[in-house]
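Dear colleague,

Thank you for sharing your sequence with our group. We've completed the structure prediction you requested, and as agreed, I am returning the results in plain text so they can be pasted directly into your records. Please verify that the sequence below matches your submission; if there's any discrepancy, let me know and we will rerun it promptly.
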Amino acid sequence: MNSINKSLIYSLAESYLCMLIQIASSMIIARLLTPSEIGKFSIGMAALAIAHMLRDFGVGAYMVHAKELTKQDMKAVFGIAILTAWSLAAALYFARYAIAGFYHEPALAEILGWMCINFLVIPFSSTVFPLLMREMKFHLLFYINLIPTLLSSGLSIYLAYHGYGYMSLVWGSLANISLAAVMATGLRPRYSFVLPSLKGSLHILAFGGKASLTNIVAQIGNNAAELMIGKTLGFASVALFSKAQTLTEMFSHQFLGAITKVYFPAIAQRHRDALPINSAYADSTVYITAFAFPFFGFMALYAEEIILIMFGSQWLASAELIRILALGGCLYAITAFAPNTINAIGKPGLLLRIQLFIQCFRIGVTLPAAFMSLSMVAWAQTVTFGVGLFIYLPVLRYLIQLNAWRLLGRIFAANLIMAALALALPFAIKHYLEVQGLPTVGLLALAGGSFALSWVVALFVTRNPLAGQFMKMLGKKP
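Please find the predicted C-alpha coordinates below.
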Protein backbone atom coordinates (compact mmCIF):
# COMPACT_ATOMS: atom_id res chain seq x y z
CA MET A 1 0.00 0.00 0.00
CA ASN A 2 1.51 3.34 -1.06
CA SER A 3 1.97 6.36 1.20
CA ILE A 4 -1.08 8.19 -0.20
CA ASN A 5 -3.40 5.29 0.62
CA LYS A 6 -1.91 4.95 4.11
CA SER A 7 -2.29 8.67 4.68
CA LEU A 8 -5.87 8.50 3.44
CA ILE A 9 -6.72 5.68 5.83
CA TYR A 10 -5.28 7.55 8.83
CA SER A 11 -7.02 10.76 7.80
CA LEU A 12 -10.38 9.04 7.32
CA ALA A 13 -10.02 7.14 10.59
CA GLU A 14 -9.27 10.35 12.46
CA SER A 15 -12.15 12.15 10.79
CA TYR A 16 -14.72 9.41 11.41
CA LEU A 17 -13.71 8.85 15.02
CA CYS A 18 -13.77 12.58 15.74
CA MET A 19 -17.15 12.79 14.02
CA LEU A 20 -18.58 9.95 16.11
CA ILE A 21 -17.29 11.59 19.28
CA GLN A 22 -18.76 14.95 18.30
CA ILE A 23 -22.10 13.38 17.32
CA ALA A 24 -22.35 11.53 20.62
CA SER A 25 -21.39 14.70 22.48
CA SER A 26 -23.96 16.78 20.54
CA MET A 27 -26.69 14.24 21.22
CA ILE A 28 -26.06 14.47 24.96
CA ILE A 29 -25.52 18.23 25.14
CA ALA A 30 -28.66 18.89 23.06
CA ARG A 31 -30.58 17.31 25.92
CA LEU A 32 -28.70 19.17 28.66
CA LEU A 33 -28.73 22.69 27.17
CA THR A 34 -31.59 24.73 25.70
CA PRO A 35 -31.67 25.90 22.05
CA SER A 36 -31.13 29.46 23.30
CA GLU A 37 -27.95 28.50 25.21
CA ILE A 38 -26.56 26.61 22.22
CA GLY A 39 -27.56 29.48 19.94
CA LYS A 40 -25.53 31.96 22.00
CA PHE A 41 -22.45 29.77 21.72
CA SER A 42 -23.09 29.29 17.97
CA ILE A 43 -23.13 33.06 17.42
CA GLY A 44 -19.87 33.40 19.35
CA MET A 45 -18.26 30.63 17.30
CA ALA A 46 -19.51 32.18 14.05
CA ALA A 47 -17.79 35.44 14.95
CA LEU A 48 -14.61 33.60 15.97
CA ALA A 49 -14.60 31.42 12.84
CA ILE A 50 -14.00 34.49 10.69
CA ALA A 51 -11.08 35.52 12.89
CA HIS A 52 -9.68 31.97 12.79
CA MET A 53 -9.17 32.28 9.05
CA LEU A 54 -6.89 35.29 9.58
CA ARG A 55 -4.88 33.98 12.54
CA ASP A 56 -2.03 32.32 10.57
CA PHE A 57 -2.29 34.62 7.53
CA GLY A 58 -2.27 31.71 5.09
CA VAL A 59 1.13 30.40 6.14
CA GLY A 60 -0.24 26.86 6.37
CA ALA A 61 -1.10 26.81 2.67
CA TYR A 62 2.33 28.25 1.89
CA MET A 63 4.10 25.51 3.88
CA VAL A 64 2.33 22.79 1.89
CA HIS A 65 2.73 24.52 -1.49
CA ALA A 66 6.36 25.74 -1.29
CA LYS A 67 8.89 23.87 -3.43
CA GLU A 68 11.51 24.22 -0.68
CA LEU A 69 10.95 24.99 3.01
CA THR A 70 14.05 26.39 4.72
CA LYS A 71 14.67 26.92 8.43
CA GLN A 72 14.34 30.66 7.94
CA ASP A 73 10.97 30.06 6.28
CA MET A 74 9.81 28.16 9.37
CA LYS A 75 11.00 30.98 11.64
CA ALA A 76 9.10 33.51 9.55
CA VAL A 77 6.01 31.31 9.47
CA PHE A 78 6.07 31.02 13.28
CA GLY A 79 6.57 34.78 13.63
CA ILE A 80 3.66 35.60 11.32
CA ALA A 81 1.41 33.12 13.14
CA ILE A 82 2.17 34.66 16.55
CA LEU A 83 1.82 38.24 15.35
CA THR A 84 -1.55 37.73 13.66
CA ALA A 85 -3.09 35.39 16.24
CA TRP A 86 -2.13 37.49 19.25
CA SER A 87 -3.25 40.70 17.52
CA LEU A 88 -6.61 39.07 16.83
CA ALA A 89 -6.89 37.99 20.46
CA ALA A 90 -6.44 41.59 21.58
CA ALA A 91 -8.85 42.96 18.96
CA LEU A 92 -11.61 40.47 19.81
CA TYR A 93 -11.15 40.96 23.53
CA PHE A 94 -11.66 44.71 23.32
CA ALA A 95 -14.50 44.36 20.78
CA ARG A 96 -16.45 41.79 22.78
CA TYR A 97 -18.87 44.27 24.37
CA ALA A 98 -19.62 45.91 21.03
CA ILE A 99 -20.47 42.52 19.49
CA ALA A 100 -22.62 41.60 22.50
CA GLY A 101 -24.38 44.97 22.26
CA PHE A 102 -25.18 44.42 18.58
CA TYR A 103 -27.07 41.22 19.45
CA HIS A 104 -28.40 42.62 22.77
CA GLU A 105 -26.96 39.58 24.55
CA PRO A 106 -24.49 40.18 27.42
CA ALA A 107 -23.50 36.48 27.46
CA LEU A 108 -21.65 36.94 24.16
CA ALA A 109 -19.12 39.22 25.87
CA GLU A 110 -18.28 36.47 28.35
CA ILE A 111 -18.06 33.81 25.62
CA LEU A 112 -15.80 35.90 23.38
CA GLY A 113 -13.63 37.03 26.29
CA TRP A 114 -12.72 33.49 27.26
CA MET A 115 -12.49 32.18 23.68
CA CYS A 116 -9.80 34.78 22.91
CA ILE A 117 -7.43 32.56 24.90
CA ASN A 118 -7.54 30.11 21.98
CA PHE A 119 -5.72 32.65 19.82
CA LEU A 120 -2.88 32.89 22.32
CA VAL A 121 -2.33 29.12 22.16
CA ILE A 122 -3.04 28.28 18.51
CA PRO A 123 0.29 29.50 16.97
CA PHE A 124 2.15 26.73 18.79
CA SER A 125 0.25 24.07 16.84
CA SER A 126 -0.96 25.85 13.69
CA THR A 127 2.50 25.69 12.07
CA VAL A 128 2.93 22.01 12.94
CA PHE A 129 -0.18 20.71 11.17
CA PRO A 130 0.77 21.85 7.63
CA LEU A 131 4.33 20.62 8.16
CA LEU A 132 3.08 17.13 9.03
CA MET A 133 0.68 17.26 6.08
CA ARG A 134 3.52 18.22 3.72
CA GLU A 135 5.54 15.23 4.94
CA MET A 136 2.43 12.98 4.79
CA LYS A 137 2.75 12.09 8.50
CA PHE A 138 -0.95 11.60 9.00
CA HIS A 139 -0.45 9.00 11.70
CA LEU A 140 0.76 11.79 14.00
CA LEU A 141 -2.13 14.06 13.02
CA PHE A 142 -4.42 11.16 13.94
CA TYR A 143 -3.38 11.32 17.59
CA ILE A 144 -3.07 15.11 17.79
CA ASN A 145 -6.67 15.59 16.64
CA LEU A 146 -8.39 12.55 18.16
CA ILE A 147 -7.27 12.68 21.79
CA PRO A 148 -8.13 16.37 22.41
CA THR A 149 -11.54 15.86 20.76
CA LEU A 150 -12.32 12.95 23.06
CA LEU A 151 -11.24 14.68 26.26
CA SER A 152 -12.79 18.07 25.45
CA SER A 153 -16.13 16.46 24.56
CA GLY A 154 -16.14 14.62 27.86
CA LEU A 155 -15.38 17.86 29.71
CA SER A 156 -18.21 19.74 27.96
CA ILE A 157 -20.72 17.00 28.83
CA TYR A 158 -19.56 16.92 32.47
CA LEU A 159 -19.86 20.68 32.86
CA ALA A 160 -23.22 20.86 31.05
CA TYR A 161 -24.59 18.15 33.36
CA HIS A 162 -23.47 20.17 36.38
CA GLY A 163 -25.26 23.32 35.21
CA TYR A 164 -22.55 25.43 33.58
CA GLY A 165 -24.79 26.18 30.56
CA TYR A 166 -23.15 27.65 27.48
CA MET A 167 -19.84 27.99 29.35
CA SER A 168 -19.50 24.20 29.28
CA LEU A 169 -18.99 24.48 25.50
CA VAL A 170 -16.51 27.31 25.97
CA TRP A 171 -14.38 25.34 28.45
CA GLY A 172 -14.50 22.29 26.18
CA SER A 173 -13.22 24.33 23.24
CA LEU A 174 -10.38 25.80 25.32
CA ALA A 175 -9.38 22.35 26.51
CA ASN A 176 -9.35 21.02 22.93
CA ILE A 177 -7.10 23.77 21.56
CA SER A 178 -4.73 23.71 24.54
CA LEU A 179 -4.21 19.95 24.56
CA ALA A 180 -3.72 19.89 20.77
CA ALA A 181 -1.02 22.57 21.10
CA VAL A 182 0.81 20.57 23.79
CA MET A 183 0.67 17.35 21.74
CA ALA A 184 1.71 19.09 18.49
CA THR A 185 4.70 20.63 20.25
CA GLY A 186 5.77 17.25 21.59
CA LEU A 187 5.35 15.37 18.28
CA ARG A 188 6.73 17.96 15.85
CA PRO A 189 9.97 17.14 13.96
CA ARG A 190 13.10 18.24 15.83
CA TYR A 191 14.33 20.46 13.02
CA SER A 192 11.11 22.49 13.23
CA PHE A 193 11.82 23.81 16.74
CA VAL A 194 12.65 27.43 15.89
CA LEU A 195 12.30 30.87 17.41
CA PRO A 196 9.84 33.28 15.76
CA SER A 197 11.20 35.86 13.33
CA LEU A 198 9.81 38.17 10.67
CA LYS A 199 12.97 38.14 8.56
CA GLY A 200 12.20 36.90 5.05
CA SER A 201 8.45 37.00 5.66
CA LEU A 202 7.54 39.17 2.66
CA HIS A 203 7.54 36.36 0.08
CA ILE A 204 5.49 34.21 2.46
CA LEU A 205 2.99 37.01 2.98
CA ALA A 206 2.69 37.49 -0.78
CA PHE A 207 1.26 33.97 -1.06
CA GLY A 208 -0.19 33.59 2.42
CA GLY A 209 -1.92 36.96 2.43
CA LYS A 210 -4.03 36.04 -0.59
CA ALA A 211 -4.76 32.58 0.80
CA SER A 212 -5.71 34.09 4.14
CA LEU A 213 -8.01 36.67 2.56
CA THR A 214 -9.65 33.86 0.58
CA ASN A 215 -10.31 31.94 3.79
CA ILE A 216 -11.68 35.05 5.47
CA VAL A 217 -14.03 35.73 2.58
CA ALA A 218 -15.19 32.09 2.59
CA GLN A 219 -15.77 32.11 6.34
CA ILE A 220 -17.71 35.37 6.20
CA GLY A 221 -19.96 33.81 3.60
CA ASN A 222 -20.24 30.49 5.44
CA ASN A 223 -21.16 32.16 8.74
CA ALA A 224 -23.25 34.99 7.31
CA ALA A 225 -26.45 32.96 7.59
CA GLU A 226 -26.12 32.36 11.34
CA LEU A 227 -25.10 35.96 12.00
CA MET A 228 -28.08 37.30 10.03
CA ILE A 229 -30.55 34.82 11.55
CA GLY A 230 -29.40 35.81 15.03
CA LYS A 231 -30.31 39.41 14.28
CA THR A 232 -33.58 38.85 12.41
CA LEU A 233 -35.14 35.57 13.64
CA GLY A 234 -33.60 35.08 17.12
CA PHE A 235 -31.15 32.79 18.91
CA ALA A 236 -33.44 29.75 18.90
CA SER A 237 -33.66 29.98 15.09
CA VAL A 238 -29.85 30.18 14.94
CA ALA A 239 -29.65 26.94 16.89
CA LEU A 240 -32.16 25.20 14.58
CA PHE A 241 -30.30 26.28 11.46
CA SER A 242 -26.96 25.41 13.08
CA LYS A 243 -28.12 21.86 13.83
CA ALA A 244 -29.23 21.31 10.24
CA GLN A 245 -26.04 22.80 8.87
CA THR A 246 -23.90 20.78 11.26
CA LEU A 247 -25.47 17.51 10.10
CA THR A 248 -25.21 18.27 6.38
CA GLU A 249 -21.67 19.59 6.78
CA MET A 250 -20.53 16.34 8.39
CA PHE A 251 -19.72 15.18 4.88
CA SER A 252 -17.67 18.24 3.90
CA HIS A 253 -16.03 18.84 7.27
CA GLN A 254 -15.39 15.26 8.35
CA PHE A 255 -15.29 12.85 5.42
CA LEU A 256 -14.36 15.26 2.62
CA GLY A 257 -12.12 17.26 4.93
CA ALA A 258 -10.15 14.11 5.70
CA ILE A 259 -9.63 13.41 2.01
CA THR A 260 -8.73 17.03 1.24
CA LYS A 261 -5.94 16.90 3.82
CA VAL A 262 -4.30 14.23 1.68
CA TYR A 263 -5.42 15.58 -1.71
CA PHE A 264 -3.87 19.04 -1.23
CA PRO A 265 -0.25 17.96 -0.53
CA ALA A 266 -0.53 15.18 -3.13
CA ILE A 267 -1.64 17.60 -5.86
CA ALA A 268 0.98 20.14 -4.76
CA GLN A 269 3.61 17.43 -5.17
CA ARG A 270 2.32 16.56 -8.65
CA HIS A 271 2.54 20.22 -9.59
CA ARG A 272 6.13 20.45 -8.27
CA ASP A 273 6.98 17.36 -10.34
CA ALA A 274 5.28 18.85 -13.46
CA LEU A 275 2.80 15.95 -13.68
CA PRO A 276 -0.73 16.32 -15.14
CA ILE A 277 -3.43 17.23 -12.63
CA ASN A 278 -6.68 17.04 -14.62
CA SER A 279 -7.00 13.25 -14.44
CA ALA A 280 -6.30 13.24 -10.69
CA TYR A 281 -8.98 15.90 -10.13
CA ALA A 282 -11.53 14.08 -12.31
CA ASP A 283 -10.94 10.68 -10.68
CA SER A 284 -11.08 12.15 -7.17
CA THR A 285 -14.36 13.94 -7.95
CA VAL A 286 -15.98 10.82 -9.39
CA TYR A 287 -14.96 8.88 -6.28
CA ILE A 288 -16.16 11.53 -3.83
CA THR A 289 -19.56 11.98 -5.47
CA ALA A 290 -20.05 8.20 -5.23
CA PHE A 291 -20.14 8.83 -1.48
CA ALA A 292 -21.89 12.21 -1.55
CA PHE A 293 -24.98 11.48 -3.66
CA PRO A 294 -26.17 8.44 -1.63
CA PHE A 295 -25.16 10.03 1.70
CA PHE A 296 -27.17 13.20 1.17
CA GLY A 297 -30.05 11.21 -0.32
CA PHE A 298 -30.30 9.06 2.82
CA MET A 299 -30.00 12.11 5.07
CA ALA A 300 -32.86 13.83 3.24
CA LEU A 301 -34.99 10.69 3.34
CA TYR A 302 -34.60 10.12 7.09
CA ALA A 303 -34.18 13.72 8.29
CA GLU A 304 -36.87 13.50 11.00
CA GLU A 305 -35.60 10.21 12.39
CA ILE A 306 -32.02 11.49 12.51
CA ILE A 307 -33.09 14.65 14.33
CA LEU A 308 -35.26 12.75 16.83
CA ILE A 309 -32.51 10.33 17.77
CA MET A 310 -29.65 12.78 17.84
CA PHE A 311 -31.21 15.87 19.37
CA GLY A 312 -34.81 15.20 20.42
CA SER A 313 -38.25 16.41 19.34
CA GLN A 314 -37.54 20.07 20.18
CA TRP A 315 -35.26 20.22 17.11
CA LEU A 316 -37.64 18.67 14.54
CA ALA A 317 -38.00 21.99 12.71
CA SER A 318 -34.46 21.38 11.41
CA ALA A 319 -35.60 18.42 9.27
CA GLU A 320 -36.94 20.57 6.43
CA LEU A 321 -33.68 22.56 6.40
CA ILE A 322 -31.66 19.35 6.16
CA ARG A 323 -33.49 18.31 2.98
CA ILE A 324 -32.76 21.63 1.31
CA LEU A 325 -29.12 21.77 2.40
CA ALA A 326 -28.59 18.14 1.30
CA LEU A 327 -29.23 19.18 -2.30
CA GLY A 328 -26.62 21.90 -1.88
CA GLY A 329 -24.21 19.30 -0.51
CA CYS A 330 -24.51 17.26 -3.72
CA LEU A 331 -23.71 20.33 -5.82
CA TYR A 332 -20.80 21.27 -3.56
CA ALA A 333 -19.22 17.82 -3.86
CA ILE A 334 -18.66 18.28 -7.61
CA THR A 335 -16.28 21.22 -7.08
CA ALA A 336 -15.11 20.41 -3.55
CA PHE A 337 -11.50 19.91 -4.65
CA ALA A 338 -11.39 23.02 -6.85
CA PRO A 339 -10.12 25.54 -4.24
CA ASN A 340 -7.32 23.23 -3.11
CA THR A 341 -6.35 22.52 -6.71
CA ILE A 342 -6.09 26.24 -7.51
CA ASN A 343 -3.99 26.85 -4.39
CA ALA A 344 -1.79 23.82 -5.05
CA ILE A 345 -0.74 25.16 -8.45
CA GLY A 346 0.11 28.55 -6.93
CA LYS A 347 -2.88 30.70 -7.97
CA PRO A 348 -4.14 32.11 -4.66
CA GLY A 349 -5.01 35.48 -6.23
CA LEU A 350 -7.38 33.86 -8.72
CA LEU A 351 -9.03 31.84 -5.95
CA LEU A 352 -9.51 35.03 -3.94
CA ARG A 353 -11.34 36.71 -6.82
CA ILE A 354 -13.59 33.66 -7.29
CA GLN A 355 -14.44 33.48 -3.60
CA LEU A 356 -15.16 37.21 -3.46
CA PHE A 357 -17.77 36.82 -6.18
CA ILE A 358 -19.33 33.65 -4.73
CA GLN A 359 -19.52 34.90 -1.14
CA CYS A 360 -20.83 38.32 -2.16
CA PHE A 361 -23.56 36.49 -4.06
CA ARG A 362 -24.25 34.31 -1.00
CA ILE A 363 -24.58 37.29 1.32
CA GLY A 364 -26.72 39.10 -1.23
CA VAL A 365 -29.26 36.27 -1.43
CA THR A 366 -29.07 35.33 2.27
CA LEU A 367 -29.82 38.81 3.61
CA PRO A 368 -33.36 39.09 2.22
CA ALA A 369 -33.96 35.39 2.95
CA ALA A 370 -33.14 35.97 6.64
CA PHE A 371 -36.15 38.33 6.86
CA MET A 372 -38.44 35.62 5.45
CA SER A 373 -37.82 32.17 6.95
CA LEU A 374 -35.19 29.56 7.78
CA SER A 375 -36.21 27.58 4.70
CA MET A 376 -35.45 30.52 2.44
CA VAL A 377 -32.05 30.90 4.11
CA ALA A 378 -31.34 27.22 3.39
CA TRP A 379 -32.36 27.67 -0.26
CA ALA A 380 -30.01 30.67 -0.51
CA GLN A 381 -27.08 28.44 0.50
CA THR A 382 -28.05 25.75 -2.01
CA VAL A 383 -28.37 28.25 -4.87
CA THR A 384 -24.90 29.55 -3.98
CA PHE A 385 -23.39 26.08 -4.39
CA GLY A 386 -25.01 25.89 -7.83
CA VAL A 387 -23.45 29.22 -8.80
CA GLY A 388 -20.06 27.95 -7.59
CA LEU A 389 -20.39 24.95 -9.88
CA PHE A 390 -20.77 27.14 -12.96
CA ILE A 391 -17.77 29.26 -11.96
CA TYR A 392 -15.21 26.65 -10.94
CA LEU A 393 -15.60 24.23 -13.86
CA PRO A 394 -14.70 26.77 -16.60
CA VAL A 395 -11.78 28.02 -14.48
CA LEU A 396 -10.45 24.47 -14.08
CA ARG A 397 -10.81 23.93 -17.82
CA TYR A 398 -8.47 26.88 -18.34
CA LEU A 399 -5.99 26.05 -15.56
CA ILE A 400 -5.59 22.26 -15.78
CA GLN A 401 -7.30 21.48 -19.11
CA LEU A 402 -10.22 19.77 -17.36
CA ASN A 403 -13.01 18.71 -19.71
CA ALA A 404 -16.00 19.83 -17.63
CA TRP A 405 -18.69 18.15 -19.75
CA ARG A 406 -16.83 14.86 -19.76
CA LEU A 407 -16.40 15.09 -15.99
CA LEU A 408 -20.11 15.75 -15.42
CA GLY A 409 -20.94 12.89 -17.76
CA ARG A 410 -18.68 10.54 -15.79
CA ILE A 411 -20.15 11.66 -12.47
CA PHE A 412 -23.79 11.23 -13.43
CA ALA A 413 -23.29 8.06 -15.47
CA ALA A 414 -21.38 6.38 -12.66
CA ASN A 415 -23.22 7.65 -9.60
CA LEU A 416 -26.86 8.54 -10.25
CA ILE A 417 -28.04 4.99 -10.96
CA MET A 418 -25.80 3.63 -8.21
CA ALA A 419 -27.27 6.13 -5.71
CA ALA A 420 -30.83 5.25 -6.76
CA LEU A 421 -30.15 1.53 -6.20
CA ALA A 422 -28.53 2.23 -2.83
CA LEU A 423 -31.54 4.27 -1.67
CA ALA A 424 -34.28 1.98 -3.04
CA LEU A 425 -34.44 -0.33 -0.02
CA PRO A 426 -34.30 2.47 2.61
CA PHE A 427 -37.06 4.25 0.67
CA ALA A 428 -39.21 1.11 0.66
CA ILE A 429 -38.62 0.57 4.37
CA LYS A 430 -39.85 4.07 5.21
CA HIS A 431 -42.84 4.28 2.88
CA TYR A 432 -44.08 0.72 2.34
CA LEU A 433 -42.87 -1.51 5.19
CA GLU A 434 -45.31 -1.82 8.09
CA VAL A 435 -43.15 -0.60 10.97
CA GLN A 436 -45.71 1.13 13.21
CA GLY A 437 -44.56 -0.76 16.29
CA LEU A 438 -40.85 -0.25 15.59
CA PRO A 439 -39.20 2.51 17.67
CA THR A 440 -37.45 5.33 15.82
CA VAL A 441 -33.99 4.07 16.71
CA GLY A 442 -34.89 0.61 15.39
CA LEU A 443 -36.28 2.04 12.15
CA LEU A 444 -33.16 4.14 11.56
CA ALA A 445 -30.88 1.22 12.41
CA LEU A 446 -32.75 -1.04 9.96
CA ALA A 447 -32.72 1.63 7.25
CA GLY A 448 -29.08 2.54 7.86
CA GLY A 449 -27.94 -1.07 7.76
CA SER A 450 -29.87 -1.76 4.56
CA PHE A 451 -28.48 1.44 3.04
CA ALA A 452 -24.86 0.51 3.80
CA LEU A 453 -25.34 -2.98 2.35
CA SER A 454 -27.24 -1.68 -0.70
CA TRP A 455 -24.57 0.91 -1.37
CA VAL A 456 -21.78 -1.67 -1.43
CA VAL A 457 -23.81 -4.00 -3.66
CA ALA A 458 -24.77 -1.12 -5.97
CA LEU A 459 -21.09 -0.14 -6.36
CA PHE A 460 -20.19 -3.54 -7.76
CA VAL A 461 -23.43 -4.17 -9.69
CA THR A 462 -23.02 -0.90 -11.60
CA ARG A 463 -19.25 -1.41 -11.87
CA ASN A 464 -18.68 1.96 -10.29
CA PRO A 465 -15.05 3.23 -10.56
CA LEU A 466 -14.93 3.47 -6.75
CA ALA A 467 -15.36 -0.30 -6.49
CA GLY A 468 -12.22 -0.80 -8.54
CA GLN A 469 -10.35 1.66 -6.33
CA PHE A 470 -11.40 -0.26 -3.23
CA MET A 471 -10.06 -3.46 -4.74
CA LYS A 472 -6.75 -1.78 -5.53
CA MET A 473 -6.42 -0.54 -1.96
CA LEU A 474 -7.01 -4.10 -0.75
CA GLY A 475 -4.27 -5.31 -3.07
CA LYS A 476 -6.59 -7.18 -5.41
CA LYS A 477 -7.27 -6.81 -9.10
CA PRO A 478 -10.63 -5.15 -9.82
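Summary note from our side: The CA atoms of residues 217 and 356 lie 6 Å apart.

Kind regards,
the structure core
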